[in-house]
Amino acid sequence: xxxxxxxxxxxxxxxxxxxxxxxxxxxxxxxxxxxxxxxxxxxxxxxxxxxxxx
Length: 54
Known about the structure:
Blueprint: H1 2-19, H2 25-43, H3 45-51
């Protein structure tokens, strides 16, 4: 649950920063977090299929 809330805040900040043209270090950190999350999901997809029910 906390993970979902955190990433909603990250995405909301990214949207805000782009709308108000606030291209700062925090925006790039958010880009990095989203990219890292995507890579982790891709890397561990086979593992999650092994342990997922259904």
